[in-house]
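Long-time lurker, first post. I've been practising inverse folding by hand and with some scripts of my own, and I keep getting stuck on stretches where the structure tokens seem ambiguous. Below is the full token string for one chain I'm working on. Before anyone asks, I'm not after the true native sequence, just a reasonable design that respects the backbone. If someone could post their per-position residues I'd love to compare against what I wrote down in my notebook.
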């Protein structure tokens, strides 16, 4: 059980509006203001400031938000664990590559071992998952791509190959091509915020290139549609090996590489810092042997 002022602080961090925070908390606006001023007085620093009439967190406020999120999360998990006959609860988030092509064996293993568990799995892009984790709605995430690892407790889950794919009869099939050759093709990519897209964009930046240098870029959030369009010769794509393993084996897609532009990706286990329960999830944090 934590001081309710921590919760008030976090709700205000989420809404960045005193009126909306008060409505969400079923408090008066002066009560919210009083609780925030108490915290500012206690720590001797401003937690929020107004810039051009817009409420913003100060640097001290951002630090306190990071600490408080872990405290509130741990408190809620302890309350649940101490409730008599409370079922095991686990809320997992995975990025789409991991959720659709990697994690199924671990989910089956967990559910067979804990048939009574209250289990949920959210499959979303990396940025959405990290936001849900920070708000305490997920216990941990397995994500790909680039993110600020220092903000979380992380562990490398596994590394995967990442490369270009095209139709088997495409002129790029089974070749190592130049970036100039690639710029003449339609790119079929995941949406912004996805780890898959971030890997490719980072590789382009290392070559002093961006997506603006391509005339045709199509954004598709569904892997099945991406692979179907690519197999039909509509464009080319860049995906992790597990996503296209079956298609490459069946010959419906072909692989290609871009010279001087090596690409690979890492999958990470991440939870909030100072998480008291992270040791219970060792089987999720480690790659299958």
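-- Answer (accepted) --
I ran through it position by position. Result:
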């Amino acid at each position: 059980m934590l001081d309710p002022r921590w919760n008030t602080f976090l709700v205000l961090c989420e809404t960045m509006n005193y009126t909306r925070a008060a409505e969400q908390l079923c408090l008066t606006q002066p009560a919210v203001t009083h609780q925030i001023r108490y915290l500012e007085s206690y720590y001797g620093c401003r937690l929020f400031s107004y810039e051009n009439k817009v409420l913003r967190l100060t640097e001290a406020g951002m630090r306190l938000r990071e600490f408080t999120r872990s405290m509130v999360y741990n408190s809620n998990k302890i309350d649940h664990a101490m409730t008599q006959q409370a079922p095991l609860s686990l809320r997992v988030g995975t990025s789409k590559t991991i959720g659709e092509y990697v994690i199924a064996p671990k989910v089956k293993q967990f559910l067979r071992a804990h048939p009574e568990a209250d289990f949920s799995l959210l499959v979303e892009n990396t940025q959405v998952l990290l936001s849900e984790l920070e708000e305490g709605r997920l216990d941990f995430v397995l994500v790909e791509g680039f993110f600020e690892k220092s903000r979380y407790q992380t562990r490398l889950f596994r590394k995967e190959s990442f490369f270009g794919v095209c139709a088997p009869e495409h002129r790029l099939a089974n070749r190592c091509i130049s970036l100039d050759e690639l710029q003449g093709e339609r790119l079929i990519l995941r949406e912004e915020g996805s780890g898959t897209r971030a890997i490719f964009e980072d590789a382009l930046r290392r070559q002093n290139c961006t997506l603006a240098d391509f005339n045709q870029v199509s954004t598709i959030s569904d892997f099945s549609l991406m692979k179907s369009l690519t197999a039909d010769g509509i464009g080319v794509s860049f995906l992790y090996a597990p996503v296209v393993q079956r298609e490459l084996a069946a010959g419906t897609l072909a692989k290609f590489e871009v010279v001087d532009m090596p690409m690979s990706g890492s999958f990470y286990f991440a939870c909030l810092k100072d998480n008291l329960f992270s040791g219970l999830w060792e089987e999720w944090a480690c790659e299958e042997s």
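A couple of notes from the structure itself: The mean pLDDT is 91. The first helix runs from residue 4 to 15. Happy to go over any region you disagree with.
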